[in-house]
Amino acid sequence: MTDINQMTLEQLEEAVRSCTLCSLHQGRTHAVPGEGPPGADIMFIGEGPGFHEDRQGRPFVGAAGKFLEELLASIGMTREQVYIANVVKCRPPGNRDPLTDELSACDPYLERQIQLVKPKVIVTLGRFSMYRYFPGAAISKIHGQPKRVGSTLVVPMFHPAAALHQPKWRPLVEADFKKLPGFIAEAESLGDEKPPPQAQQLSLF
Ligand code: URA
Ligand code: SF4
After folding, report:
1. What is the rounded CA–CA span in Å between residue 205 and residue 138?
2. Is the Cβ atom of 21 under 6 angstroms away from ligand 2?
3. How many angstroms separate the alpha carbon of residue 48 from the centre of ligand 1?
4. If you measure from the C-alpha of residue 92 to the centroid of ligand 2, how many angstroms do you get, rounded to a whole number?
5. Number of separate domains in the chain
6. Is 87 near ligand 2, meaning CB less than 6 Å away?
7. pLDDT surpassing 70 at residue 53
8. Is the pLDDT of residue 196 over 60?
9. Under DSSP, is residue 183 helix (H, G, I), strand (E, B) or coil?
10. What's the 194 CA to ligand 1 centre distance in angstroms?
């Protein structure tokens, strides 16, 4: 197999569809590599496929996906303009949390997706993508507050599925979304300046 770090986006999506690197491949109907155009300004990173995603092989196609599309529409964007990925590409049985070894096995795919898409802004949706950048943080404290990683801004947000279940979070995620166009503009102005030192220590989980 080609080294993940040499793959094109298409090769990566193909490799994910036949991946057996962790035990999650055993229960999947379809792996869900992610989708969107290279060069998208925004990349969303969710948790993992749920029932509908596993059936269709596409990310965020259930109720949470519908809400994500509404949130995008509120800032004049469509899902075709953004890249949508997950920390694990195969559905955990019964939608349980992904385990540490599954997250580690799948992470190189996500890392390569980020390298290839080169988003200006990364939005983490849910705990596991948040922990990748903000280990141990609480979403209720840090949501909507960007952190610079190289020339990218990483913004933690409430997961749309969580906001659907917790009505009090809905206005918060709606307000955080409204900040995204400003964050894209801010990230553009960062260019390739040298990042501050603490942004270079990306600790995993
Ligand atoms: N929830 C996620 O985190 N990812 C999906 O792809 C769908 C629902
Ligand atoms: Fe491979 Fe990721 Fe699926 Fe595990 S979850 S089998 S590492 S694609």
Report:
1. 14
2. yes
3. 5
4. 10
5. 1
6. no
7. yes
8. no
9. helix
10. 33
